[in-house]
Structures are given as structure tokens and as C-alpha cells.
Amino acid sequence: MREFSDEELERYSRHIILQDVGIEGQEKIANSKVLVIGAGGLGSPVALYLAAAGVGEIGIVDGDVVDLSNLQRQVIHTTADVNVPKVLSAKAKMEAINPNVKVTVYQKFLDASNILDIVKGYDFVIDGTDNFSSKFLINDACVLANVPYSHGGILRFGGQTMTVKPKESACYACVFDSPPPANAIPTCSSAGILGAVAGMLGTIQAAEALKYIVGVGEPLYNRLLTFDAKTMNFRNVNFKKNPKCRVCGEHGIKEIKDYEAVVCEAKL
Amino acid sequence: MKLTINGESKEIKDGISLPELLVIENVEQPDMVSVQLNDEFVRQDEHKGITLKENDSINFLYFMGGGA
Ligand SMILES: [Zn+2]
To answer: Which pTM was predicted?
Structure first.
């Protein structure tokens, strides 16, 4: 059990007075370790909110540097951070918000050779990547390592997210099977993204991580939440774990392999 | 016949196949959409053989690869 200082009790008071969180819930948050993959449009709000919430250890992965065109939505980075590695820029803001949080940076892109070792050390993973080879690789790694995670995808005015508890709930491949062919699907850089939509989806992912850690409510298991910010219609599509799933089914994957880079801008 | 498409009830002519419905509903890139029929996912290579029936519920789920 962890003793909170007076500073922490004051800082987290709005969590602690929440009936479903309380001091026990805040202790769970302080003892948790969350990995945020991608310090971009989704990773920015997730990392900011998880740091503010007092998640004990946050890992952040990204091999890129901040680009001017990122600043329209990647709210953890500022104009002064252009050309700075994203993980370092993100770590500085997270520590400025909450010095109680331990931030571990991985200034690299994940692939089959390193992802399992990194993911294994965490209680929950956030997919904030921007290409299908990464999204499927994260799904595979989390299923193999048995680590729950939040899938997130955004495009133009829309977003989709689901939370995966390996072995218990449907995984990303239960729904979409395998990556689409190269350049078949428009990307944010080719088709655009409303900056605030990244914030909408990222904050949903952060809330899912905190719900999972505290053990409150109903995570987005076995359902895909999709929204269209143009109409502000939100919809849940329900499904079950597919027993024949290529990844998590009876004859699912046994080892991790890289997917072909399927997007022209794929970096992972 | 009545079908529920993406959560909305719609009147669609009787006896159409799944690929025909994808055309009627203006689904872009039909080979890139994940189709769910009455809670089960339909594999791409099985689309052709499926004829829709009264009260079927169909969801179209689209790939979204952005995040950065
Ligand atoms: Zn699966």
C-alpha cells in the first residue's frame, strides 16, 4: 500500500471524492503502468491525461521528431519543440503536469524484434499509431503477452475504438482480420484529420485505461465504438470473440511477426 | 423487406444478395469493409453466396488507420 502525501491528496481530490474511485482507486492508478505507443494525435491527449491522473509509470514510444504539421492536433508538443524527439517533448510536459509520475521513453519504432519485451512490462497499452502494420502488430503482441489494450483509429471527422482483454474479449483481428493492402485506405496525411477529433478519441482511450485500472464500469469489450463528428452520432457495434480468429482463436498465432509496411507513410 | 443497416431500419427490395446491398448502400471499397450479419462476421470470400432475408441486421465496419 502506498501512502499519499498531502500534496497528492490535494492533487487527486476530485478523483478521490468520486464514489467509484476513492482512495483505493487512486492507489490502483498510482501503482499502475501504462504504455502509450505513439506520441502523436492520440498519444498526446492520452499521455497528458494519464500523467495528470497520476498513473505511476507511463512508457511512451515514438521514433519521430516533432514536425510543424503535427501541431494542429498533437497538443503535447509546442512550437518550440519542432525537430525535438517526440518522446522527449512529451516527457517534459508530462513531468511538468505531474512530477509524481515516472515517465520512461522509448525513442524508437516498435517491430517484431522489440515489441513483446516492452509490452510485457505494462498493465495496459494504448495504440496511438498511424498505420495498419503497427495496429495489427500491437494487437498480436498484446494477445501473446496477455496485456489488455485500447485500439484507436481516426480519419477525417471520424474515430473508432475498442478495448481488448486478451483471451476474454474480441481482438482487433476478430473484427478486421488482417491489414488492408498498401494504400487501399486513405490516411490522415493523405485525407486529413480534424485536430479535435484526435482529442475526442484519445480522451476516450485514456478513460478506458483508467476504468480498467480502477476496475469500474464497462470497458469497450466486444464492441467497437464509432463516431462521426460531423453529425456527432456515436454508435456501438457489438460482436463476440471469433473462435476462428487468426490471432486469438483456437489456432491463433504462436509467435510475433512483422506485417509488411502497408501505408506509404508507415514508419513502424 | 425490412433490414437494419448500421442500426437504422430500412426498406430494401426482396431477395438481394450481400454484394448487391453493398452497391445500393454506396459502400466505398466493398472489399475493404468488414461486414457483420446478425452478429457474425462474414468473410470476404463468402459475400457472394449470401442472400439477405427479412429482419436481417447488417453492420459495415470500416478500417481507420490514423492516430498520429
Ligand atoms: Zn481475435
So the answer is: 0.94
